Amino acid sequence: MSHPLKDHFKKSLMVFGLLTLITSVVSLSVGSVNIPIKNIFEILLSRIPLIGGYFQAHTGAQSKIILQLRLPRIILGLIAGISLSVSGSSMQGVFKNPMASPFILGVSAGGAFGAAVGIYFGMLWIFLPMIAFIFAMTTMFTVFFLGRVNGRTDISTLLLAGLAMNFLLTSLTSLILFYSDPAERMSIVAWTWGSLSGTIWNEVWISLLVMFVGSALVYAYARDLNVIQTGETSAKQLGIEVEKTKMIQLISASLLAAVVISFTGVIGFVGLIIPHASRLLVGPDHRRLIPISALLGGTFLMICDAFSRVSGGLWVGVITGLFGAPFFIYLLLKNRGETGW
Known about the structure:
mainly alpha
């Protein structure tokens, strides 16, 4: 006999998975040049070995737009949405706070500061992701070190250290902005609002690998994270290695966010609102919450990027805020007192 909660989760997984697939196809068709969905399928299927010969080959402008511009951009958007949402689910679970986000440990501020430094000193654009990633992870490990008290991770100290580093690095980035010339200033501002334009396939493959590894580590400790929600003392009594679980969750979540930032810039709201919205839909069990958050996050960011392309290049971080904040407020008003915490 099937369990009603499991049946509900399976149906939700199928529905959101189908929604993600439909969104990706529609997103491929819209932009400054609209391409018929029929042509999209022919372009994609004609490239598949063995069966490609059965479909009409397209070698013109539409093929280049799909394969070289939109497809890597949309896939990176899907990966970024998944990574940020999984990271947010993990952070909110560790901090036991629905207002926690992937950037709470200073990852975004560190990445933005690293990119600002690189832009100010004229670093080639191909090296900017590397320096942004290095600064983001260095910031995270600094905060993590400051949050260690007597050999254990103190969540309150970690949170305060993260806030302090966020304020410090944001101020340093503003200082660089003040002394930058107009062209540099525009590049730094664009980085702080995030964009998926100019995505190349190498960025997709690196992000995909990190997404799988990081998400797998977060999900592997989902049950332990559930138990920790009842209290660290009781979790230890049940045999949960609390410190190990928190460390793996925090490092994995930060790695997911840092890689996204290094390639897209800072895209806010996704890691905050999507896990919270998913919690309202499927409850606080991280074994259900993480997969649903991943699908919703990927779909949401692809939709926002489609609007970015249609609008002529508006920063995707602006769109996630414009769409995400009102929707988040609606969910809060509709489900007051039912957040699962």
